[in-house]
Amino acid sequence: xxxxxxxxxxxxxAEARAVIDxxxxxxxxRVYNYMALGVAWTxxxxxxxxxNPALMATVAMGPMKWVLFIAILGLGWFAPRLIFSGSAxxxxxxxxxxxxxxxxxxxxxxxxYMGTNPAVVVRALLITAVTFAATSLAGYxxxxxxxxxxxxxxxxxxxxxxxxxxxxIFFQSTMMSLITSIITVLLFAGIxxxxxxxxxxxxYEGDLPEAARSKAIFGAFMLYGSFVTLFIHIxxxxxxxxxx
Length: 244
Prior knowledge:
Layout: H1 2-50, H2 53-60, H3 64-83, H4 88-116, H5 118-141, H6 150-171, H7 174-202, H8 209-243
């Protein structure tokens, strides 16, 4: 009688757990697919700009690069509000604009390495993909709550950002650039794991389609920023090491 009493309770729970797991996998796959679309679009924009030096010089170099930089920071702050506005068109526009701005901003760097040593770009992309996959997987499977690191990640990101800007404006030191890039890669490896766990925690089985879509786009937006940041600084590290 004991087995007979338990089975009707255990089976629905197991089935419910399987449904949730399948829904979570589908949700995370959508997040990664959206992120990949953003990365692909950034690559297209960067290569287009690199193939048009005059346009790149006008839009992405000189004082304009700081305008782009500020625009990216501003959109990074406001885009989540637009993504959760309830409008699919607005959410995609915010995400697409963010990916476009990044493509324009990094185009001079891509153009330089594509013209001098294209293999460095390929290696940087491969290393970034492996690093991102490993840290995102770690964030997905770990049982440790990473939310406690959120404050540290925020402050460390601000500190690194200030160091990068100060070096670019005042010192222009190759060694400092190398050090800040190494720190940034380590920092954003941790941020990627934390973001993945956060995105996973946002999943709710009963979400309406509009809410599920907004969450997936927001998750892609978060991971996209980390992927591009990792790529930029890994490329910078490889470029500096190649020069030496």
